[in-house]
Structures are given as structure tokens and as C-alpha cells.
Amino acid sequence: MSINDKKPKEIKQQQEEFIEILCHFLYKYIGRNLLRKKKFKKFFYESIYIDKYESILKKANMRIIPEEYFVSIFILIVSSFVFFFIFGIVVQLLNFFIGSIVFYGGFILTVVVGFFLYNYPVSLASTRGDEIDASLPYVLPYMKLLSKELSLAKIIEIINGFLIYKEIRSEFNKINYHTNVLGKDIHSSIRYVMESCPSRALSDTLNDMVTISNSGGNIYKYLSRKLINLNTELEATEKKNIETLLIYSQIYVVVLLIGPLFYTIMSSILGMINLSGAGMGGASSAGGSISSTLMLLVGLPFAYAGFMMLIYYSKPLYSRLQPMKNDK
Residue 154 contacts by C-beta under 8 Å, 6 or more apart in sequence? Predict the structure, then answer.
């Protein structure tokens, strides 16, 4: 399968795996040796390391410790800067202008890559949280049905068996791992996983279910109320989305249908008038009109494609959430 045939989620997963492998490699062969030096270690923990990233990396579901991640970023930034500095100086000896472009371009690229890596776990955790929130409307109805007869532990076990959305399934897998492999009780497992859950909605739901289960309350009634509130929110979201689509449809009709048609008609009329006139000025003006029309016809397909992407991404995430591929 070629790169063009791969789904965006598959490419995204490969990107995550590549970053993890790269960080493991840099930390193993360079980072550990750097951290053994007292001066660098002091500088690292005072100026580079950020405590909150321990929680962020867990929420992003990245299998990297904070020391490993920040040492890798430091190594990449320093090595990139040194490379472009040396390469830029060498090129400047041959051509000052091109060498300056290489030097300053490399510096800007290094800053951009560093900024990207610094914010990547934050962005990934936020994306995971959004996808979990979007999949909750499909999961809670099943949990409600199961809660009528089954215990909390059994609900989690059964739900985990047929979940088809990757990110929320990842959280339920963690709960089952702590329960079935590490031998913790279901309440402790849920509370532990809640600490690294990127979705506030799922975390609050699980916390409420644990509290109700501990107090002997009725989980079924709680989930019934939860679904009513959730459906109310979804109706408001759908209503807002319809209003947005109506505005987009008006823009589409005016800008991409009526506008090009009006421009083409007016250009044709003006071209005919100019052609009926004598002299080179008329021919030149007509040629310019034809060129503008051709450019418009070439650009319209891209404008239509861009508008379709705008419509797609304006939809709520839960309505465009893709199920997880079953590789079994």
C-alpha cells in the first residue's frame, strides 16, 4: 500500500511511533551519558525539564518518560543548529547569498521543529481527549443497558470487548490491565486510569460510577440522567451546526456559483465589445479577459474542493468519528 492510499490515522500512528523510537534511541545512546554529568544534569532540571509533562505524556499515551523526551528535544535542536551553522559557513565561502539563506533558513527550521516537538504531546493529548468525548455518545447507551443487571467490573469488561473507537478503548484496556493483570480491584483501577485520562467527560463519568458503586447507588439511573443531558447537548450542537451550514451554503451560492457565472458573462460581453473595436488595444484587452477567465476555470475546482473540506470539518467530531479497523 502506497503512502497516498494510507488513511490519515494510520500516518498519524506511524508518526507517533517514529517519534517514540527516535526518542528511545537518542536517550539510550546519548541522553543517559549527558545526564550522568553533574553540570548538565543541574542545567537540564533547572532550565529544560518541565514537571507537568509527566501527566501530559501519559494523557497523550506516549510510551516515553519526560527525561527521555526533553533530552531528545535538546539533542535534536543542538545538533540541527550546529549542522546548519557549519554547513552555512561552508556554503558562504562559495556563495555568500546562498550560504546566508542556508544559515538563517536552518535556524528558523530548527526553531520551528523545536516548537513542534515541545507542543506535540500537548496537541496529541488534546486530540485524544476530543476523540474520547466524541465517542461517548455511542458508548454510554450500551453501558446504560448493561448497568441494569451487571456490576461495574462486568460492565467495564464487556464494554472493552466490543469497543470500536481506538482512543476510548485504550482507556478501558488500561482499566482491564490493572484489574486482570495487576490484580487491583475495579475501583482502584478506574481511579488510577482517571489520573491519566485526557477526557474530562469520561473521567467524570467513571468517577461518578465508582462513587455510586461504592455507596450502593443505582448506576442505571445515573446513566439515564447522563444520557438525557448528553442528548440535550447534542441537539444544541446539531442546531448550531445546521445554522452554520446554512451560512456556508449562502456563501457557496454567491461566491462559487453566481460570482463565477456573472464574471464569465460580463467578461464575454466586454470581450465582444473590445473585439469589435479597432486597433491593438482592443485585441490586448480581449486577450487579458480570456486569460482571466481561464485562470478562473482552473481555480474553481480547487475552490470547490476547499469548500467541501470546510463543510466536512465544520461537522461535530462525533458525526465524523471513524471506527477502529479490525485487523483480526
Answer: 146
Q: How far apart, in whole angstroms, are the C-alpha atoms of residue 311 and residue 323?
A: 21
Q: Could you tell me if 85 and 40 are in contact, meaning their C-beta atoms sit under 8 angstroms apart? A: no
Q: Which amino acid is at 91?
A: V
* Residue 254 CA: distances (Å) to CA of 82, 257, 265: 53, 6, 15
pLDDT digits (tens, 9 = 90+) for 138-179: 889 989 998 888 888 888 888 887 777 888 888 998 998 898
pLDDT 10s digits, 294-309: 767 777 788 888 888 8
- The single-letter code of the amino acid at 116 is F
Show the 3-state SS of 275-299.
HHCCCHHHHHHHHHHHHHHHHHHHH
Parse the chain into domains and list their residue ranges. Answer: 3-128, 130-230, 233-319
Q: What is the pTM (predicted TM-score) of this model?
A: 0.74
User: Number of C-alpha atoms within 13 angstroms, CB side, residue 321?
Assistant: 24
CA distances from 21 to 26, 28, 63, 100, 247 (A): 9, 11, 10, 33, 46
